[in-house]
Write a structure and sequence with these properties.
The structure holds three protein chains of three kinds. In chain A, 45% of the residues are buried. By secondary structure, chain A is α/β, with parallel strands linked by helices. Chain A has helices at residues 2-14, 41-47, 61-65, 78-89, 111-116, 151-154, 181-187, 191-202, 210-214, 240-254, 263-267, 275-289, 315-318; strands at 20-25, 34-38, 72-76, 98-102, 122-128, 131-136, 139-144, 166-167. Chain A contains 13 helices and eight strands. Chain A has three domains: 1-107 and 157-176, no CATH class; 111-148, no CATH class; 179-323, no CATH class. In chain A, 34% of the residues lie in helices and 13% in strands. By secondary structure, chain B is α/β, with parallel strands linked by helices. Chain B folds into five domains: 4-127, Rossmann fold; 143-232 and 317-332 and 522-568, 3-Layer(bba) Sandwich (FAD/NAD(P)-binding domain); 248-305, no CATH class; 334-499, FAD/NAD(P)-binding domain; 580-647, Alpha-Beta Plaits (2-Layer Sandwich). In chain B, the strands form twelve sheets. Chain B has a five-stranded parallel β-sheet. A five-stranded parallel β-sheet of chain B has the order 20-27-21-22-23. A four-stranded parallel β-sheet of chain B has the order 2-1-3-4, sandwiched between helices. Chain B starts with a strand and ends with a helix. By secondary structure, chain C is α/β, with parallel strands linked by helices. Chain C has one domain: Rossmann fold, CATH 3.40.50. Chain C has four helices and four strands. Chain C has helices at residues 21-30, 52-60, 81-98, 116-133, and strands at 12-17, 39-44, 65-70, 106-110. Chain C has a four-stranded parallel β-sheet, with helices on both faces. Classes of the chains: A alpha/beta, B alpha/beta, C alpha/beta.
């Protein structure tokens, strides 16, 4: 795939369709890839990479890239195409300035999952088709790729690219995933248990803003948390409430717009399962207002900018069985 | 820092009996920014207002807090007071310590403490108030009336008489509406045509009125005082200027088998037609669905016989754009379709007719030239059964839950006129209730019963079954005698419920005017502003707002005209300054706000911004039209970046109130 | 700080829309219908003006319950505002519940300008509910709490 991508990128650069390429750049380790913009075939040859660790959602970079001179080529995984659609719907990207190539995706690996599978002291990882051969300080270890999938990929919502100018390979289909199982588990706990769970998770937050910075729905010109006029500006949590405030408000601001790409949890250095907040909103929206997938359709009206006369009352929350 | 004055009103003993007003004034005086505090018996009295004015001047106040009754009571009063003393009226905030404090609490200590907290919240808010100036927008001194029935005609005539130009847009080839189809009108029994057609002619001849007949509203843009409306003039295939209305073409037209909608399909007309003799404008119209020339290209007879040379088969729809200051909706009503009421055999028998069809059957210009004849065999009916509330007050899905209001009276009229003209006819009326509120209405109904011998039967008809002998077997219940009735009728007349015209719903969308679940237009206030739509600049006339008879329709039409005139005499409109505004530096241009705005007040512009690194960037940003925005604030919450805020109720003001209350 | 449940008087912030519920609150005053003084009303033009941030802010600053009152659905002065309120608050309350914050600390109630009695009854009921829950500890900011 990587060779095909580089070949196609060079062609599009050569024929002038695009003047730069948004992709992933090789890092220190195999799992350590970074999104990058490549302006020439030489740069592509030197460091362009596409492997099982290219999990980053590139759509968000298009907010800035699509406003620059000339067209940019973007390689997008199915997840990323949902984000691109959502950004297009919100006029945050200039779609005409983007040449999107949709990629098939069988899920991306999570180095943390490898470590959890017992690989300590990783020095290198070799791709063995369905497996990874993990070189560690303590010898080699073989881990099935399926066991190393990131949570969001194990519960993949869709392998379908929903917007692209060109596809490399076959387009996939919307998946029947179990992504709401964890949310449901939490819902079935008592309020005290939920409180304890989230207190435990959110109290680890160091307000590094990685979730916000990676999130393709968080593209505000100025975030309310950075704006002294908003009344809720803060940069570091001074107490347990403010961690919650930040994450509740952030989840609410992306509610109905979040495509569930899972970047927030991927980038969180404290491993807080932030996607469970967004998924709660998605699950509620699906259950209360009908199935809705942000980014699936550019023309769709978001559930929070819409209503029906027959909508349920907020008291449905209070009428739920378990507390 | 603001210089704030606090004024605590006793409201006689209304506040002072349960709130220690002196302590409230004393305590609030030490709040930051407060430079003056006073209490007074009646702050709204002239002396009280003078106290405020003097304090504003003497203490150079920049903000005023009045602890008094509800702002819904006297906010406007105190704003005027402040303005009179040279302070921006929007620098005044009210702490409601009467309705929401002294009147609901008995314990003086508790009420006093609460009054102080409410005062603090108001002070916290005033600290963040900014002077606001209402925007001004010019007024286009021209009105549009949509619908040319009696409601539209009356509204147009009244506005035109006041000296303002008015356009009437009517989708039919002629104005006149439903009233033109009626025979006599209750309770005076004067003929509808005799009182309507002169008004139609008045409208046509009035120098201030222009009639767009056979036209529809295509698009509406703008806002109160500044509407821009695109009107579609549908192609008549006849030049209305050249056509003299002689009617020769309609006589010569070989296609004469077109159901005549003016007579509700009870007879036929030609493919080129003039709806009725007194049509205004009296211009022929070609019905392209039936015209042989339009369908096959052959014929052209009307063109040959037309001496004026008015026929033009190549005519196309024409779009015209006009500017208006006010729009009146007068789209009227229709009887509901009775397809779903199988029990009355409307679809099975031609002798089961609606009341409007009955009007045509008794009208001298109708299909039977005014002689009441059965549609099936053209014989005189000797037993007629009228059924009221067909689809009205009907809780099942197929009817309307409301009372159609006019049926009781027109049924009494029909029954009475039948008995007068054909005394040998037995007339029965089945009713649930007879509702006759209205001047001389009950007297009229009683005359039908007492003088004309109409048999009124309280009860509903369960079934109408056509019989082999051509009669209709009517089965109903008589609730007063407590028995089942079986009547053999020659004619059954159904008082079908009325509903808003089908064009009303799409029109409401174009106008952003709200409707109720029955598709009647909603009034701005059901009691106090019954002829205005909640959307500024849109007014309601006639049955589009709810079922109405002619006198009521005409009253409302004139009332709507008065409101329009009141608007059009103004040179400039002052807006409400408490409107939303977008901070361009923070706006993402994401369109969330636009989607939730009920008034279409938000548009987007591409704007060039200087970026920190001395480059420029073009960004899409929201822009609020303050003349259209009504200040609900829906957009402020839809906005994720907080770029959208509301004057007078800003994010920081409300949060300051929250903080003050929770301190 | 030990709070005796008998003495505990919860602080309630009530956001009321100007056209219906604020008028309904005025009417309950006009009719001298009592409800506890710890209910403090903030006037907003429409219930749809209430940002979830305001609700959280109130809790942060020590409110024990937050209630929103607006026109009945279909009666909004701005025609559609309360429909948005309904969705927003349903989702917000659900999220708070999900985070383990007592869901009975939040409420939305539709109160018309004619429903003074309903306003008072609603407030009495809400105060009683929140009183049973006790002090809000899960969403408060201790720095802002009165000593």
């Amino acid at each position: 795939m990587q060779e095909a991508m580089i070949r196609r990128a060079k062609e599009l650069l050569a024929d002038g369709t695009v003047n730069r390429v948004l992709g992933w750049q090789r890092g220190e380790f195999v799992y350590d890839v970074t999104p990058a913009v490549f302006a020439s075939p030489d740069e592509l040859d030197a460091s362009f990479v596409y492997n099982d660790f290219c999990g980053a959602n590139l759509s968000k970079y298009l907010v800035a890239e699509s406003r620059k001179e000339g067209k940019v080529l973007a390689f997008l995984k199915p997840c990323d195409t949902y984000s691109l659609n959502q950004l297009t719907a919100e006029h945050r990207v200039v779609r005409e300035n983007i040449y999107a190539i949709g990629l098939p995706c069988e899920g991306k690996a999570d180095v943390e999952a490898l470590k959890a599978a017992g690989a300590a002291g990783i020095t290198g990882i070799a791709d063995g088709g369905d497996t990874f051969t993990v070189h560690t300080l303590y010898g080699d270890q073989t881990v099935a790729k399926a066991d190393a999938l990131a949570e969001r990929c194990a519960n993949c919502k869709s392998k379908q690219c929903v917007t692209y100018d060109e596809l490399l390979g076959e387009n996939g289909a919307v998946q029947n995933s179990h992504r709401f199982d964890m949310v449901e588990q939490l819902e079935n706990m008592t309020a005290d248990e939920r409180y304890a769970f989230w207190q435990g998770e959110l109290s680890r937050c160091i307000r590094c803003n990685a979730c916000r910075n990676a999130c393709p729905a968080c593209t505000c010109e100025k975030c309310v948390f950075d704006n002294p006029q908003s009344g809720i500006a803060n940069t570091a949590p001074a107490d347990s409430f403010e961690e919650k405030l930040f994450h509740i408000i952030r989840a609410f601001h992306v509610a109905g717009r979040c495509t569930d790409c899972g970047e927030c949890s991927r980038v969180c250095p404290q491993h807080i399962p932030l996607h469970l907040l967004n998924r709660k909103f998605i699950k509620d929206i699906n259950e209360l207002y009908g199935p809705y997938q942000a980014g699936a359709d550019v023309a769709a009206r978001g559930p929070l900018t819409d209503f029906t006369f027959e909508d349920c009352e907020p008291s449905v929350v209070h009428e739920r069985g378990v507390n | 820092m603001q210089r704030i004055g606090v004024f605590v009103c006793w409201c006689g003993s209304n506040i002072a009996a349960t709130v220690d007003v002196k302590q409230v004034a004393e305590t609030l005086k030490s709040e930051p920014g407060v430079v003056f505090a006073a209490d007074y018996q009646y702050m709204c009295s002239e002396a009280g207002q003078n106290l405020i004015k003097d304090a504003i001047r003497d203490h150079k106040l920049t903000g005023v807090v009045i602890c008094s009754c509800s702002p819904r009571m006297h906010e406007a009063t105190f704003r005027k007071t402040a303005a009179a003393a040279g302070l921006n009226p929007y620098m005044v905030e009210i702490a409601n310590i009467r309705e929401q404090c002294s009147w609901i609490h008995k314990d003086k200590a508790v009420a006093t403490e609460k009054a102080i907290i409410l005062g603090r919240a108001a002070i916290a808010k005033v600290h963040l108030n900014a002077p606001l100036t209402p925007g001004e927008s010019p007024v286009t001194k021209r009105a549009l009336v949509i619908g040319g029935g009696i409601a539209g005609i009356q509204t147009a005539l009244d506005i035109a008489e006041a000296g303002f130009p008015v356009d009437i847009v009517e989708k039919q080839p002629t104005i006149g509406g439903k009233m033109a189809q009626l025979d006599k009108t209750f309770p005076t029994l004067d003929c509808a045509a005799c009182i309507l057609t002169p008004k139609m002619v008045d409208a046509a001849q009035h120098e201030n009125i222009h009639i767009y007949a056979y036209s529809e509203v295509e698009e509406v843009k703008g806002f109160v005082g500044n509407f821009s409306v695109t009107i579609r003039k549908k192609a008549r295939m006849v030049d209305p200027v050249k056509c003299t209305g002689c009617g020769l073409c309609t006589e010569k037209c070989p296609m004469k088998k077109v159901p005549n909608e003016f007579n509700l399909g009870m007879n036929n007309r030609s493919a080129i037609y003039i709806p009725f003799a007194q049509a205004v404008p009296k211009v022929a119209t070609i019905d392209p669905a039936y015209c042989i020339k339009m369908k096959t290209g052959k014929c052209g007879l009307c063109s040959t016989v037309c001496e004026a040379g008015a026929i033009d088969y190549t005519q196309q729809d024409e779009l015209v754009e006009e500017q208006y200051g006010a729009i009146v909706v007068a789209t009227g009503y229709n009887p509901i379709k009775l397809d779903q009421f199988d029990e009355f055999a409307y679809a099975q028998s031609p002798d089961v007719i609606t009341s409007l069809e009955f009007e045509r059957l008794t009208n001298a210009a109708g299909p039977t030239a005014g002689t009441l004849l059965r549609p099936s065999d053209g014989k005189h009916p000797h037993t007629i059964v009228f059924v009221q509330c067909v689809g009205s007050r009907c809780d099942g899905g197929k009817g309307k839950s409301y009372c159609s209001k006019i049926c009781c009276m027109y049924t009494a009229k029909h029954a009475m006129l039948t008995r007068e003209k054909y005394p040998d006819t037995d007339v029965y009326v089945f009713y649930i209730d007879v509702r006759t509120p209205g001047k001389n209405f009950d007297e009229f109904y009683r005359r039908a019963v007492e003088e004309y011998g109409v048999h009124y039967i309280k009860g509903m008809v369960g079934k109408v079954a056509p019989q082999a002998d051509g009669t209709l077997l009517v089965q109903g219940s008589d609730l007063i005698e407590n028995r089942q009735l079986r009547l053999n009728a020659d004619l059954v007349v159904l008082a079908a419920a009325i509903e808003p015209d089908a064009s009303a719903r799409p029109l409401a969308t174009k106008l952003t005017a709200s409707m109720d679940t029955n598709d009647f237009f909603t009034e701005a206030h059901p009691k106090l502003r019954p002829v205005e739509s909640p959307t500024a600049g849109i007014f309601l006339s006639g049955a589009c707002q709810g079922p109405k008879d002619i006198p009521e329709t005409v009253s409302q039409a004139s009332a709507a005209a008065a409101k329009v005139i009141g608007l059009l005499v103004k040179d400039k409109l002052k807006g409400n300054p408490c409107v939303a505004h977008s901070n361009e530096m923070m706006c993402n241009g994401c369109s969330s706000c636009e989607k939730v705005c009920p008034y279409g007040a938000i548009t987007y512009v591409d704007k060039e911004f200087r970026m920190p690194d001395r480059t420029t960037a073009i960004r899409r940003v929201a822009s609020v039209n303050p003349a259209v925005c009504q200040g609900c604030g829906a957009c402020t919450v839809a906005c994720p970046s907080g770029a959208m805020d509301l004057n007078g109720f800003s994010n920081s003001q409300i949060m300051a109130e929250v903080d003050a209350i929770c301190k | 700080m030990q709070v005796n449940e008998k003495e505990f008087k919860p602080l309630i912030v009530a956001f009321c829309c100007n056209w219906c519920s604020y008028a309904g609150a005025d009417l309950s005053g006009t009719n001298r219908l009592n409800y506890p003084a710890n209910v403090k009303i903030i006037r907003v033009p429409c219930s749809c003006r209430v940002n979830p941030m305001f609700v959280l802010r109130a809790f942060q600053r020590g409110a024990d319950g937050v209630i929103l009152c607006g026109c009945h659905p279909g009666d909004c002065h701005y025609t559609t505002g309360n429909y948005y309120t309904r969705r927003r608050m349903t989702l917000l309350f659900s999220m708070l519940d999900y985070l383990g914050i007592e869901r009975d600390r939040t409420r939305v109630e539709w109160v018309s300008a004619a429903e003074g009695a309903k306003f008072a009854a609603t407030m009495n009921d809400f105060v009683a509910t929140v009183t049973r829950l006790g002090e809000n500890k899960r969403l408060e900011d201790l720095r802002c709490k009165k000593q």
